[in-house]
C-alpha cells in the first residue's frame, strides 16, 4: 500500500467547492509536486494533509493510518511555509530545537539533532543568530531544518521558494531535492512555477479548478499533456486550430498544409475542427533537417533572446512560436520571409478538453 | 526661508509656549515654599507625607493588577480575533472604544448599581471586593489603549502562520500562546502596560466614587488644602506619565524582535 493516500478528497468553503474528488497515492520517499495556478486548490489539499483544514469528504491516510481524526499537532508532519514562519523571538538553534523540545526530548539528544540539522543546511556557524539577522534564503533553510528535526513522516513544502530571488531559488531547490533524496522523506511540494516542479519532482500533479488534470512524471507531463489545460499551463505550447481531411488516413489540414498525424483522430469526421499542440522547440527550419512532415508559413517576427532565437510563423492564421538554439552560424529568419518548419508527425499532440 | 516654513515654526512655537509656560510656572511655584529663595521643601513635604506614600503605593498596586489581568484578557482576545474570528473585528473594536465615549462617572454609577452590597454580586460589600471592582473598572478604562497596542504588535507578525508553524511542530495551545505569540507581541504588551500605568496613576473618578485611597483622590485632597504641595504633586504626576511614555518609546525602538518576513 502507498505511504500517503488521499481518497476522494473534497473540500467546500460555504457554497464554493474548492477541491473536487481528489485522489492520489504517494509512495514512501517520493517527491511529488502539486502544480497549478492560484486558486486551483493545491494549497487546500496540502493544508488538509497537514490537518489545518478538515476535508468535507474523503480520507487522508498516512502509513496506513487514517489522519482525519488527528489534530495537526498529532500527525508528525513537517512543513515549510512560503513566509518562512520562523519564531522571531528565538535564535536559529532554538527555532530548530522547537519541535524536539515540544516532544520532550532529552537536552543532549536535542543538541545532537539540532547540530546535525544545521550541518545538513550548512548553517552551523549561524546557530546564535536571530531570524531578522538572516537573509531570505538562510531563513528558509532554517525553516527546512526546523521541519526536519523531529523526523516527520511526511514533509510538506508550501511554495517555499516563491519569496526568494531567482538565483537563490534555483540553488535552494537543488539543495531541497538533495536533502530529500538523502533522507528519503516522502515530500509534497506546492508550486505554481512549472520549471520548479519539472526540475525536482518524481511525479507532478497538475491541478485545475479543484481537480487533478494529470498525474505523471515531469517528462510525461511536458511531452504528453493529457488536457488542453495541462498543455497550456506546462511549457509554452502552440495550440493550432486544424480541420480533419481524412479520418481513415489520419490527415489534417493546417492552412494550406496537409499533415499526417501519428495519433488517431478518433471519432472525428472529415471537415471537423480539432486542436493540435506543438512544442516551440520541436522541429527545424534547416532544409536538410530530418522530419517526416512540414508546415510552410510566413515569418511575422523574430527575436534574439540570448541562448534562443524565437520566431513567430503565421500558418493559415495560426501564430506558431518556434525556438531554435543560438549557434554562431545560425541565420535569423526575417519578417515576411516564407519558411518551412520540418518536424516529426509524432511531435503533434491532439488536444483534448 | 519660505513663508510656509516660517508659519510652521510660529505654530510650533505657540504650541510649545502653550504647553510649557504653565508647566514651568507650576514647577517654579513648587520651588517657592521657602520665602525669598528656591527650595525643594514642597517635594520634601510631599515625600514625607505618609498618605502620599500609601496612596502612591496603592495606585501602583492597582496599576500592576490592571496590567496583568488586562493583558490576560486582551492578548488572547486580540489573538483569537486575528486568527479565527476576523469577522468579529468591528464588534471588538467598537466594544474596546466604548470607554472613550461613555464618561467614567456613568460607568462607575453603573457598577455601584450592579455590584452594591445588596446585589447578587456584592463587590462593594468588602474592601477586597471593592479593590477588585476598581481593578476591573481600570481595565475597562484602559481597554482602548491596551487593545490597540497589542493588536498593532500582532499585525507586525504573521500570527496565523506562526501559530500553524508551532502547531505542526507538535505544540499545544498554552505553548503556542506563551512561547510563540506572547514574546513576539511583548513590545505592544509593554506599550499597553505603560500607558495603562499612566492612566491608573492619575485616575480620580472611579477611585473617589468607590472610596478607595488612590493617588488621584489624594491629589485632589492636597490641592484643596495646601498651597505649594499641589504644584509639586502635579510635577511628580507629569514625571510619572513622561517616564511611562519614554519607556514606551524605548521598548518600541530597541525591540529586536523584528518579524521574519519574506
Describe this structure as you would to a colleague.
The complex is a heterodimer of chains A (353) and B (262). Chain A has 353 residues and is an alpha+beta fold. Chain A folds into two domains: 4-226, P-loop containing nucleotide triphosphate hydrolases (Rossmann fold), CATH 3.40.50; 238-350, OB fold (Dihydrolipoamide Acetyltransferase, E2P) (Beta Barrel). Chain A has helices spanning 42-50, 92-102, 107-120, 136-148, 166-183, 194-200, 218-223, 228-233; strands spanning 4-13, 16-26, 31-35, 57-62, 65-66, 77-80, 154-158, 186-191, 203-208, 211-216, 238-246, 251-254, 257-260, 273-278, 293-304, 308-315, 318-325, 338-343, 349-350. A six-stranded mixed beta sheet of chain A has the order 6-7-8-3-9-10, sandwiched between helices. In chain A, strands 13-12-11-14-19 form a five-stranded antiparallel beta sheet, with no helix packed on it. In chain A, a hairpin with a 4-residue loop joins strand 11 (238-246) and strand 12 (251-254). Chain A is elongated and about 75 Å long. Chain A starts with a strand and ends with a strand. The model of chain A has no long low-confidence stretch (mean pLDDT 90). The longest helix of chain B is centred in the first third of the chain and has 34 residues, at 50-83. Chain B has a single domain, classed as MetI-like (MetI-like fold, Orthogonal Bundle). Chain B is built from twelve helices and no strands. In chain B, helix 9 packs antiparallel against helix 12 (229-254). Classes of the chains: A alpha+beta (353), B mainly alpha (262). Chains A and B meet through strand 6, helix 2 and helix 4 of A and helix 7 and helix 8 of B.
